[in-house]
Every structure is written in structure tokens, then in C-alpha cells.
Amino acid sequence: MKIELKNLCKSFDKKTNAIDNMNLIIEDGEFVALLGPSGCGKSTTMLMIAGIYKPDSGEIRFNGQLVNDWEPKDRNIGMVFQSYALYPHMTVLENIAFPLKQQKVPKKERIERARQAAEMVRLGHVLDRKPDELSGGQQQRVALARAIVKKPKVLLLDEPLSNLDARLKIEMREEISRLHKELGITTILVTHDQEEAMTMADRIAVMKDGKIIQYGTPMDLYHRPSDFFVAQFIGTPPMNVFRGKLIGNQLYFLNQSTELDHEQWNTAQGELDVYVGIRPHDVKLGKGGDIRVKGIVQMIEPIGHAQIIRINVGSEQLRLFAEPTVAIEYKSEITVSFHLSSLHLFDMQTGKSLR
Ligand code: ATP
Q1: Which residue is closest in CA terms to ligand 1's atom 18?
Q2: Of 4, 106, 297, 307, which sits most exposed with the smallest number of CB within 10 A?
């Protein structure tokens, strides 16, 4: 099902807009993540799509049809919340079949469809257990099976992995992605975890203060952040950021001066304060890049396939990845470099990218 949000507004206290003129198109079968910090309006958006909250103004369309006034039960939506909200006295099978019972589906069909949904999430072997006899990951799967048992046209997932430990999170990420591919169902994930959004979603809407700041594929957001907020929010470790000044085509940062190609950058007419960003992945040991920087090694963090190195350059810090076998000494001075083309520049006032 294709979902369109047009000029959507919602406020709770009449003063501030929890959702501020939001526009978003989610194509049929797409997996979209709403990503942003706490309070940016992700859940409110989700609850409006589900029909639990009514927008103050604007339109919600499903396959082109205006659904603003449709009841939640008529919207053909399955939901999974952070708290799985399973019924403790019911077995796994009964929990999964429950939405069908509410729809008055005959018992035999109910059981058959609940079994199928349980198989989809690989729970076929625990159907007779109660929720308290299940692991966190299994409980999560019950909630998922219960959400898909009605064969909804849209699946809404609100921070579904928050309560799982790191290993289970990765397992369930893969599980949900697989389920999405198998069912081809339009899926919306609400999360504040950029890694979750990056690994699962086809497209990500990055939200701040009730607005979408950028909507694009994970690679778009990583390589071409249109806004400083997005640049900082996406990527681990986060983008290195330095204060800089742009005077015409000349960029000053880290005690260096570099001329920018004005064909590639929206350089300033006069003077402009800028944030200069460089991803840790784009910084290399040695002098191979256009811009060279010397710094003192402050931290060496081995992570198996690489080491994360942090150096101090004057009063600023810079992180980079190094090969796992390179010997680097704590407190030694090293030279690192990067290419001009991998720099990101943002207007300090507006946050907008100068690309
Ligand atoms: P979180 O990740 O913390 O759940 P979120 O991005 O989902 O945050 P929302 O829960 O949508 O954000 O909240 C958006 C704004 O609306 C916040 O300022 C919040 O305080 C406010 N808000 C949300 N629900 C209500 C409500 N029922 N009554 C009053 N204010 C609300």
C-alpha cells in the first residue's frame, strides 16, 4: 500500500507543533524508517498513520484514498510496539490468533493462520508456551506474528528492538528484514538508532522538531547529508567536525588554508562561518590525501577488523580507522590525510550543506 502524508500538522498544547507541516511518500512495499532523537515526533506520525491520533490538518492517503476519518480497525494495519504487550495467560498460539478472534474468524481457520504466522517468525516449536517461558527475542517474534496474522497491508514498528540485548538486536534486525522481503508489505519503523535504520530501511526520513530534515536512501544520507543535523546523526563513529571559515573560495580550518572548486561548492560571496565535516572512514594514515594534518595519538581502540584511532590536532579531535596490524604508539605524533572531495561543508547558521 502506498502511503502519502501531505502538509500534516499535529499539536498537543496549541503552542508548538509536534508535527509541523510534514510531507512524506512511502511507496507500496517499501521499508521506511522514521529516525530522530527523542521527542522529534516519530511516534506521533506513526499513531496518525494508524488512526489512533487525528491530525489537526493535512491529509493521510492510502493508495490515493483519503483516510483521515477512517477508524484504526479499518486501516488494515499491523503494529508492534517496544513493549510487546502479550497476554500472559494465553499461549503463544492463542496470543498470535487473538486478532483473528476479535475479527470473529472461525476457530479452525484461526489456528491454521496463527500457525502459519508462527512459522513465518520461526516460532513453530513453542506454540504451547506462555510468554513468561520465552526469551525476549521469542516474545518479540510473537508480537511480530500477531501483527502479521491478519495479513495487513501496512506494518508499523515502534522501537521494536529497544528491549533486546545487542546480539538479539542484530538477529531480529535480520529477521524483520527477511519477513519484509517475504511478505512485501509496506513497513514503517520508528527508531532513534541510526544503525537500525541504516541496516533495515530502503529509505530513511530523518526528523527533528516535528519536521523531516532529509528523506533518502541510507547511502544518500551517509554520503550526501543535506544538513549538519543529518551529518552528525548518521555514521559510527560520528563524523569529525571542525569549525571553519569560508572567504570566497578559500576555506580555513585546522590552521590550514585550502582553495575550493566553486563548481562543486556553493561557496560564499563574502565571509561565512562553516562546520567542516570528514567521515572517519575518509581519513587515512600517511600523506596520500590532499589535506594533511599532524596530531598526537590519544586513543587506540581495536575493534577486530580495524583500529579506531583518535588524535588531537591542537585543541580539536579527529577519529580515523587504521588497518588492524599497523603499529601505532600512544602519544606519538602521526600524519593523517584526506581528500578535498570527501569533505562536507555546512553553513554554521542554517546547517545547510554547501554542496
Ligand atoms: P520518543 O522517541 O521519545 O518516543 P518521538 O520522536 O516518538 O519520541 P513523540 O512521542 O511523537 O516523539 O512526541 C513528539 C512531541 O509531542 C513531544 O514534544 C511530546 O512531548 C509531544 N507529545 C506526544 N504525545 C503527546 C501526548 N499524548 N500529549 C501531549 N504531548 C505529547
Answers
A1: 39
A2: 106
Domain residues of the chain, as ranges?
A: 3-232, 237-347
The pLDDT tens digits for 79-104 are 998 877 899 999 999 999 999 999 89
Residues 127-151: tens digit of each pLDDT: 999 999 998 889 989 999 999 999 9
Q: What is the largest CA-CA distance in the chain?
A: 75
Q: Which atom of ligand 1 is nearest to the CA of 190?
A: 7
CA 354–ligand 1 middle distance (angstroms): 32
In this prediction, the answer to ipTM > 0.90 reads yes
For position 268, what pLDDT does the model report?
67
Per-residue burial over 282-294, b if 16 or more Cβ lie within 10 Å, else e, is: bbebeeebebebe
Q: What is the pLDDT of residue 25?
A: 98
CA of residue 44 to ligand 1 center, whole Å: 6
Q: Which atom of ligand 1 is nearest to the CA of 207?
A: 6
Query: What are the two backbone dihedrals, phi and then psi, of residue 81, each rounded to the nearest 5 degrees?
Result: -105, 170
- With a cut of 50, list the residues of the chain below it in pLDDT: none
CATH match of 3-232 with 3.40.50.300? yes
User: What pLDDT score was predicted for residue 332?
Assistant: 97
- Lay out the sheet containing 291-302: strands in order across: 284-285, 333-338, 291-302, 307-313, 316-322
Pick the CATH number of 237-347 from 3.10.520.10, 3.30.2350.10, 3.90.380.10, 2.40.50.140: 2.40.50.140
Output the nine-digit C-alpha cell for 69.
476519518
Q: How far apart are CA 101 and CA 97, in angstroms?
A: 6
Q: Whose CA is nearest to atom 21 of ligand 1?
A: 18
